[in-house]
Structure to design on (235 residues):
């Protein structure tokens, strides 16, 4: 992207809306605002923003319902900023299709960091469409989807079928928080496996790809919610 992306801020609380838009402005981002759920959907349809920052507690439509509506026709990255701090609220929003979840009160530094992660994912997705989409690289990790092989620092890593499916799912959604239930449904497509089983497979996968080096921490745990593949530097 040559131009700065356009961020749609959906927030009915004026002081918080002002805090977010001022923060975006100081960083050179372009932004739009919406005070209601209805307005947010209209802005998304008519102005095609690059990313949405969404409060769940809007006066007309619940934020989770907005996410569901938008996901029927768009993959617009959505970062939820909400006072709802329970795991069940985070899981509901993420399962509906949100990309990230930030709990109020929040620091502007954290908001900007989450914003950069989501925008980087957009760039990476665009780059993958132009390059060989069968190869995924992230720091020292490399996945060849067509061959079904994984390498770490040039050395092949032998994974079980379930470990490989978990790794591929996280890689294809790099930078996005995936809930336990979403991962179980995507990987196994049934209720044959549960969250404890997922954690066991995740532990063995991490042992193989993360070793003991702090340089190779690819997977981040969101306790009570799920997992995220971190995007490491090319170095």
């Amino acid at each position: 992207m040559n131009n700065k992306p356009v961020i749609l801020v959906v927030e009915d609380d004026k002081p918080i809306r002002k805090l977010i838009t001022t923060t975006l402005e100081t960083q050179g981002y372009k932004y739009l605002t919406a005070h209601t759920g209805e307005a947010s959907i209209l802005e998304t349809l008519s102005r095609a923003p690059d990313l949405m920052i969404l409060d769940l507690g809007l006066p007309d439509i619940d934020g989770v319902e907005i996410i569901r509506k938008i996901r029927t026709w768009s993959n617009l990255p959505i970062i939820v900023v909400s006072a709802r701090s329970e795991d069940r609220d985070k899981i509901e929003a993420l399962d509906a299709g949100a990309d990230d979840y930030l709990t109020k009160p929040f620091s502007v530094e954290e908001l900007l960091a989450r914003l950069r992660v989501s925008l980087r994912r957009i760039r990476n997705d665009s780059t993958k469409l132009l390059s060989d989409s069968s190869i995924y690289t992230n720091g020292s990790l490399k996945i060849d989807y067509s061959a079904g092989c994984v390498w770490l620092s040039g050395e092949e890593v032998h994974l079980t079928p379930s470990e490989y499916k978990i790794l591929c799912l996280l890689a294809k959604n790099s930078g996005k928080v995936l809930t336990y239930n979403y991962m179980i449904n995507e990987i196994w497509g049934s209720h044959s496996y549960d969250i404890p089983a997922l954690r066991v497979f995740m532990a063995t996968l991490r042992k193989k790809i993360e070793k003991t080096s702090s340089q190779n921490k690819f997977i981040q745990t969101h306790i009570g919610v799920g997992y995220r593949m971190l995007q490491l530097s090319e170095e």
Notes: The radius of gyration is 18 Å. The chain is about 45% helix and 20% strand. The longest strand covers residues 6-10. The chain has a mean pLDDT of 88.
